[in-house]
Amino acid sequence: MNFIEKLKQKIVTSSNQADTSSTLESMAILMVSMAAQDDVIKIEELVQIKSILSKYSDSDEDVDALLNKAMHQHESSHDFYKHTKQLIVHYTQAERIELIKHMWSIALADGEVDPYEEQLVRKFSELLGVHHHKFISAKQQAKIALT
After folding, report:
1. What is the pLDDT of residue 127?
2. Who has greater pLDDT, 11 or 26?
3. Which of 116, 90, 86 is nearest to 103 (CA)?
4. Domains of the chain and any CATH numbers
5. d(CA 70, CA 115)
6. How far apart (Å, rounded) are the C-alpha atoms in residues 73 and 76?
7. What is the distance between the alpha carbons of residues 139 and 96, in angstroms, rounded to a whole number?
């Protein structure tokens, strides 16, 4: 069983659906924030976010609803601490590193990494307790995965 399947199983078998739902929402909000960091959410970034979220959901409708909710919440909330705290509580270190890799893949989706995007990935990495060498490794893995 690969990492994504394990993570999906962990989410599905969670005893508290509300926590799982809010954890996915937190993850989606951070992803939308990543895409919006350079002031324009590009179609490539949205496609990447949907692709990532589909790994955690069985239906396209659920992914679309989650993405729409995240986009609305992103507009009214920039409290990254609240969302990263939620992820620290429910995700292992390996899962948080995987999330940083996802953030890099969103930043790289349009073919260019804006300095503000890099700064935000760094901020998320620090808030999630991901060490610098893992931050760099996640960037390299995201680059390789997108080629």
Report:
1. 95
2. 26
3. 116
4. 19-146 (1.10.3680.10)
5. 23
6. 5
7. 13
Cα–Cα distance measured from residue 140 to residue 143, given in angstroms and rounded to the nearest whole number: 5
Residues comprising the chain, all counted: 147
3-state secondary structure labels for all residues of the chain: CCHHHHHHHHHHCCCCHHHHHHHHHHHHHHHHHHHHCCCCCCHHHHHHHHHHHHCCCCCHHHHHHHHHHHHHHHHHCCCHHHHHHHHHHHCCHHHHHHHHHHHHHHHHCCCCCCHHHHHHHHHHHHHCCCCHHHHHHHHHHHHHHHC
Least reliable range by pLDDT among 18-22, 46-50, 136-140: 18-22
User: CA angle at residue 8 from 7 to 14, to 5 degrees?
Assistant: 90
Compute the half-sphere exposure of residue 46: CA atoms within 13 Å on the CB side of its CA: 10
Kindly report, residue by residue over 50-97, the tens digit of the pLDDT.
999 999 887 889 999 999 999 988 877 778 998 999 999 999 999 999
Closest of 76, 67, 56 to residue 9, by C-alpha: 56
